[in-house]
Structure formats: C-alpha cells, structure tokens
Design a protein that fits this description.
The chain is of the alpha+beta class and about 220 residues long. It contains six helices and seven strands; from the N terminus they run βααααββαββαββ. About 45% of the residues lie in helices and about 15% in strands. A hairpin with a 6-residue loop joins strand 2 and strand 3. The protein is globular, with a radius of gyration of 20 Å.
Length: about 220
C-alpha cells in the first residue's frame, strides 16, 4: 500500500473523505489582486490565445500534449517574462504593466507589501532580484495568504460539526465528513471556499486514490 494514496480510508464506512482542490493559481490570484475576479472560462480563454499563437486548432480539440504546451507557455510568460510577440494580447500587456509598476515601487521604496495581510518583501531579504522574480514572490505570497484565510474561515465554520480537516496541501484541503452531515455541509463548504471567485473542484470517496469527482 503506497503511503499518501491508499492509506487514507474512512472508518467503518460511516464517513466520506472529501478532497477540495482550491483553484488558487497564479492567473486567478492576479485577477483578484486587480479586484476583477476570474471565472474558469476566462482562464481557458487565456490558454486558447496561446493555442491560437501556436497555430493549433480549437482548444477543446487539442491533444493532451498540445494542451500541456499551451499551458506551459502561459505560465512561462507569467514567471519568466513576457515575450514581445505576446504583448498584443491584452491580458499579457496588463500583466507586463503591473509587473513594472510593482518593480518601480520596490526600487523606489525598498519594499512592497502583499495585498491581503500587508507582509513586506524588502531589498535586504532577497538577493539578485529582478522584476519578474519579484512578481513571482508577490504572487506566491498572495496565493498562500488566500489559502490560509480560507482555511481559517473553514475551520471557524466547522466548529459546530463533526466534520474536520485532516490534511492540507498547497492547493487542496481534505476533510473527514460523516455521511449524516454530507448533504448539508458539502454545498456550504463549496460556497465558502469559492467566495472571491476562486472556483473549486470536489472529490469524495473512502479511499484517497479511488475518489470520484462530484458536482455540488
């Protein structure tokens, strides 16, 4: 039995393991920083633009390898710098403008602050800083703050229930949910975690690597 997969089993068949994937990726966080939010179809649309640039067919007709290439280019541009040919795409022009606005603030003040809990990222903390490296730190810090806030809200919500958090990873949280509470609590958990236009994906089951996706 491989630890971390099959080892997580609900006791006596009286509860479900619920895994909730938090879509707190860089693009979603970036749109929320700007206060505009983002929906899954917008995220797909950005990747479609890359698909078109690669002269591929429609995104939903791509092979898995072509989808992966499109996604890889999208995130390479976010973290490594935006090539000139992509600046004609409004999203990437907006990202580029934001990156250099952030960079100028950091050079002028010696620090920037994260948008949620105002943690400082300062010159004396990091060596060999570049504009997109700073943007990377800023996004990753913000993603963590979003996730921690949501976990805190979830923990507060669960105070009056038997359901409990049993595992948290970078982008997902796992809960032990008694069947007697599932019908009531699962939609509420989904609604809570999606506040701020952060979509989630849910899976349930009694064995971790055999869980099934559900729609709430």
């Amino acid at each position: 039995m491989e630890f971390g997969k099959s080892i997580v089993v609900a006791l006596l068949g009286l509860s479900w393991i619920l895994s909730v994937l938090l879509i707190v990726c860089s693009i979603v966080v970036y749109f929320n920083i700007l206060g505009s939010g983002i929906l899954p179809e917008i995220l797909s649309g950005i990747i479609v633009l890359i698909t078109m640039w690669l002269n591929y067919k429609l995104f939903d007709e791509l092979t898995d390898a072509q989808r992966d290439e499109s996604k890889a280019i999208t995130f390479r541009l976010l973290y490594g710098g935006i090539d000139k040919e992509f600046l004609s795409i409004p999203f990437f022009q907006q990202v580029n403008d934001f990156v250099f606005k952030l960079w100028n603030t950091w050079k002028r003040n010696g620090c920037i602050k994260t948008p949620i809990i105002a943690r400082s990222i300062c010159k004396d903390q990091i060596n060999n800083m570049t504009s997109f490296k700073l943007f990377n730190y800023y996004l990753q810090a913000t993603e963590t703050e979003v996730s921690v806030n949501k976990l805190s809200q979830l923990q507060d919500y669960l105070q009056d229930y038997t359901t409990c958090i049993i595992l948290y990873t970078y982008d997902s949280v796992m809960l032990d949910v008694p069947l007697s509470e599932a019908k009531t609590i699962l939609p509420e958990i989904k609604n809570l975690l999606e506040q701020g236009k952060f979509p989630v994906k849910c899976k349930v089951g009694d064995i971790y690597d055999k869980m099934r996706t559900i729609t709430l």
